[in-house]
Here is the input.
Amino acid sequence: MTGKILGKAIVLFSLLISCAAAAQGVLRVVDEMGSSLKTVQAGRPFMIELTLSDGGALDEAPVIEGFDPFELLDSSWSHSVINGEVSIAYRYNVIAPKPGTYTVGPALFSQDGSQKVSNSLQIEVGTEQLSDEQEDQENSVIVRLSLDKDRVVVGERIVATLRYYYTDPSARLRNFVEQSTKDVIRKKARGPRQGSEPIDGIEYDYIELDWDMYSKKAGEITVPAFAAEYEAKMPRNPMFGGISRLLGMASAQKRAYSNAVTVQVDPIPPSDQAVQGVGTVDVFELSAHPSIVSQGEGAVVTLTLKGDFNPDKIMIDNLQGVPDELRYYESKESSEEPTSATDLATKQFEYIVQGLQTGNFEIPAQQFHYFDVNSQRHRTITTAPLSMTIMPGTPKKSSITPSNPVVEQKRSALPLAKGELRPTRKPYIMPWWLFFLLITIPFFAWAFRRGRHSLYIHRKKTYRARRSYQAFSRAQAQLVKLQKNKKNERLYALFIELFADKWHLSIGSITAEYIAQRLQDIGMPQEQLEQWNEFFAAIAQQAFAAEQSEKHTTDLFKKAEQWLKQLQQLL
Amino acid sequence: MVKTITAITLILSLVAADSLAQTPRAIASQAATAYQADDFESAARLYGSIKNKGPGVWFNSGNCHYELAQYPEAIVAWKRAQQGASFNLLHAIDHQMSGAYEKAGIPFEPSLIVSFLDWGARCIHPFFLQLLFLMSWYLLWLLIISKRRIRLKNIYYALLGILIVISGAFLLMHYTQYLYKSALVIKKGPLLAGPHEQYDVVKELSLLQDVQIRDERPGWYKVATHDQMGWVAADTIETV
Here is the structure.
């Protein structure tokens, strides 16, 4: 019973609230998810939402008072219907650049010709991280922004450090998102570096960036919060059972915000002289290279400053008190930014100095007037004077070309060429095809030698083969001739030549024993071999006998003819 | 008769007109006077009007551009002056060119090898280089094929090898110039993959970068840098 009464009371209260809202627009501060916020953080985006419960269209865009201090990122609108009631929500995504208390509203809008107003809001903007997000509990991620100083003067160096702390290595940092600040000059970031540090008894790893900043104007300056975008692993939906394990962990892009920081910037105290820089100066020196030059030649004179300052804001116009016998020109300026938070900056001004007359001259000590941030007072420092010796020599143009003449003296123009006005004849050059041909001649000569040798070898081989091939036909032709001339003593030589040609051997190496052995090796029957030996002995006898027997001549020629035929078949 | 008189009159008037036209020496003299009076614009215009410019004219034209703080134009003119210039003029050009690069804000630090090759190719007569190369080449060949014992043969090998490499490198510079025209980038612009703005950018060309022209299309040049090849708009480069 009590529950029913309580339920009815809640419904009645809700109806009353919605009726009140329908009467006019409602302004409120919400986060990205639409939840109401009590306080917001400088540099961190939040939304100002104007809800119109009476869903009619507006005649023109609503005007919200007190909106100017905020930086508008984007805007959107949406409408919804609940129980037939149409409501429209205008959302403005904004950033508060500085901490403080801001009054926003009322919003003025015109609906169906009638002017309406919304409520007003008090927005508290702080620098600390929102309590519920000081640490992303789920992923154990913290982002912290810190400055090395909380009070500086205009132009003094401030080192800002941004650290992304994490305990779970899977929470991988993607990038830092920075809100612009117009009140400071921000230099290029150094890093990233890695390290670890305990926070509240938990050991955190961190990724760190640092950079130099120089305030442009006096007052309280807020460095807005930075966002760190990181990839966080998310467990997969268990409804897929074991399959989700196969897929591994899902990842989601998340964003964590740092704190914002404020720094008090004081103006530089007034000074009688022009302030040429702000910071500390450890080195201020004047040097020349070379310090002894010939008349008319240039030497590079360098003013070097090293210290803790913004090198882009160091101002030195020209060399002071340069004697009339010397002429100088501005050459170039160079800067070296500090490579770490503890490193010093370097600034160099180069001048080209030419000697107009010979002798020893002195460039007097140079002064630099700056505001020293350590002692908090103005200081003037000086270099040692610089001696230069100008030697006699043919006046000539400096090898170092001057630029931007500071001293108003007429510079002599570059000397003109007197001759060579006509185009010169192109120098003779051997035609490139001929040149390359001549280069290749040794290769041709080498190829010719090689070719000739190969040809000789080839010919030698083919001659022997031809002799071997034609051995029997030549022997038969010769036999006919010998028979005709009745020169049976030449039969021995005929057969020796035949075997020499056939076996590719020299004539001297052919003997009766060798022939018999070879014929036996190639399978001549023993009986036939004996006949051959008899025949060969007979023709040898004829060849070496003192007198020739006429009787045996015809018989020998017949046998010789038969043996040629048999050997041809056998060989 | 009338025709003959007309023809003679016409020829005489042409001859007279030609003799009245200013000679290059006279224009150069006027230009030098303007230059001495610090009227560099007039001097540059006068030097520019000389046809068939010699190294001296290009050199002086470069000086005018230099004085007018037109450093890319000055460097282009001096590069043109290098061709066929005497040793003294080459020395003066080298001397002034580094200053112009510095003025244009471009680092002028050619490597020692490139400077040496450039010097050799410009200062040594190419025909002499060809003869030197061929002589060394043949001697080396004879040394290789010779079966006689020669004292200090390895030293001869080394000396001839060095001569061949050095003269060959100088000749390679000449041969490259013979094959491809050289040009300078006078306007920063992109090196594109094809002869149209819609093609991908291969790289950004830096001012006064040396390039070689490999091909030509209306309004476009195909060029090779030391590491890339691509197309540039015709007004981006100037041949030297």
About this structure: Helices of chain A lie at 2-23, 243-247, 432-469, 471-485, 491-503, 512-521, 526-544, 550-570. Residues 20-126 of chain A form a domain with the Immunoglobulin-like fold (CATH 2.60.40.740). Chain A touches chain B through 31 residues (CB under 8 Å). Confidence is low (pLDDT under 50) at residues 11-23, 395-410 of chain A.
